[in-house]
Amino acid sequence: MEEFFGEQIEVEKSETSPQPLRFQWNGEVHDVVEVLNERVDTGFGALPRRSRKWYTRRHRRYFVVRDAKGDVFEIYFDYSNRQKQSWWLVRRFDRKSMEAGRNIAT
Question: What is the pTM of this model?
Fold first, then answer.
């Protein structure tokens, strides 16, 4: 069973790549050993059609990552506001579904 969080996290990334190297969540550091999926979301989410303007788009870069313990997480970087860019933990995937070869492309 997947666990959903929606919590802000601290992330360390390379200066030459947007991919995360490690992140801290609940006081624990998770070293990223593999990026399994990466995608960009510039959609409007659930906004009504009349509110959809270029400046109301999402600006998020999602990553599905495996940490050194073998846990798989989905995190994203929200870069919609240059002054308040932030990283968020979306969910942790269930190991059983990952071992069964579940498609994690979101």
Answer: 0.78
